[in-house]
């Protein structure tokens, strides 16, 4: 390691590898050979070990209006090994096992220094086609055409480049097919319950995906409404149902699902004023990537968090479109995609 750069043979050079590319909205991903540029200052190039498919990937895979853009490399739940680093990168080195995260933590801005927010203001979350610092891409196809990034991660590629503020070093002993889930779903779900809602023992909790029938059943079962409602699907109508199902006075609705950009909520101002309920968002479950993920991972290794049950299917990288079929068909919770298995 010298001047923040790796001494590996591939350091400082483009890498030719395979990626699953979304070339048309809603069409099967196409596995092609691409070129991945070396990392610029403050960036890390990562060899992906495995990645999992999140429904947010499907939402943006289907999207046909801005911020949709093609050709794009989707994927944001992953674990990998640092291949090389750019200048001014000191917290990880080649060979380190890392989780790339869609949410940054710079450690310097007011939000990152506060316990009350996980929303970095120096490198804010965006549905963005570029690297966060330089407004450009590290991917091109073999014709030289630019391929767009997704959520600052783009893990549906054998190699990707991620800003250092989006990289968390982890214990290499943690199974990669479990560690990858902490890049989104586990952190979001656990964080929403423990950090944002702060659910107490004995509380009534409802996870929303039941539709209007569930709305009536919930109020009956909870004696006037649930203490906490979690909307995990990403539908504005379901957010409204969840809010309506909360108990007056102290009920709290937490929105986790990713809805299409531009979607609007319609709430009665009378109900908002008179019901005394709370409606809040919980991007990444209120979790700070670098500060909190190691703590969550330790809870997993200490057998306090149940994660194994989330992984219901596994596929090889060349069968990535099968993962889409399984998730959209309601046949799996999480499908892990192995890059070289």
TrEMBL record:
GO terms for molecular function: alcohol dehydrogenase (NAD+) activity; S-(hydroxymethyl)glutathione dehydrogenase [NAD(P)+] activity; zinc ion binding. This is alcohol dehydrogenase. It comes from Gossypium raimondii (Peruvian cotton). One of its GO terms (cellular component) is cytosol. Residues 41-171 form the Alcohol dehydrogenase-like N-terminal domain. Belongs to the zinc-containing alcohol dehydrogenase family. Class-III subfamily. It catalyses: a secondary alcohol + NAD(+) = a ketone + NADH + H(+); a primary alcohol + NAD(+) = an aldehyde + NADH + H(+). It is an enzyme of class 1 (oxidoreductase).
């Amino acid at each position: 390691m010298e001047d923040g750069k790796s001494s590996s043979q591939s350091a400082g050079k483009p890498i030719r590898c395979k990626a699953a590319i979304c070339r048309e909205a809603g069409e099967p991903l196409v596995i092609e050979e691409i070129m991945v540029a070396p990392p610029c200052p403050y960036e890390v190039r990562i060899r992906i070990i495995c990645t999992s498919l999140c429904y947010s990937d499907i939402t943006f895979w289907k999207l046909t209006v801005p911020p949709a853009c093609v050709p794009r490399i989707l994927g944001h739940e992953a674990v990998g090994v640092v291949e090389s680093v750019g200048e001014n990168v000191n917290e990880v080195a080649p060979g380190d096992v890392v989780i790339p995260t869609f949410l940054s933590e710079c450690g310097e801005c007011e939000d990152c220094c506060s316990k009350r927010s996980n929303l970095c203001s120096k490198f804010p979350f965006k549905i963005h086609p570029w690297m966060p610092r330089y407004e450009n891409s590290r991917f091109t196809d073999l014709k030289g055409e630019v391929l767009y990034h997704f959520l600052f991660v783009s893990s549906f590629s054998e190699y990707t480049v991620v800003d250092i503020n989006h990289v968390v070093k982890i214990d290499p002993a943690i199974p990669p097919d479990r560690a990858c889930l902490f890049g989104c779903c586990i952190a979001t779900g656990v964080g929403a319950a423990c950090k944002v809602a702060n659910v107490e023992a004995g509380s009534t909790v409802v996870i929303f995906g039941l539709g209007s029938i569930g709305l009536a059943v919930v109020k009956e079962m909870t004696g006037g409404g649930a203490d906490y409602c979690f909307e995990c699907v990403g539908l504005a109508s379901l957010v409204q149902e969840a809010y309506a199902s909360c108990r007056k006075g102290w009920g709290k609705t937490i929105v986790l699902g990713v809805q299409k950009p531009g979607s609007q909520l319609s709430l009665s101002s009378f109900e908002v004023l008179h019901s005394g309920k709370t409606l809040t968002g919980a991007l990444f479950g209120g979790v700070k990537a670098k500060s909190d993920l190691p703590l969550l991972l330790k809870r997993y290794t200490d057998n306090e968090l149940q994660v194994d049950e989330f992984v219901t299917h596994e596929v090889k990288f060349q069968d990535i479109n099968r993962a889409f079929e399984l998730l959209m068909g309601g046949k799996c919770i999480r499908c892990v995609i192995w890059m070289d298995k």
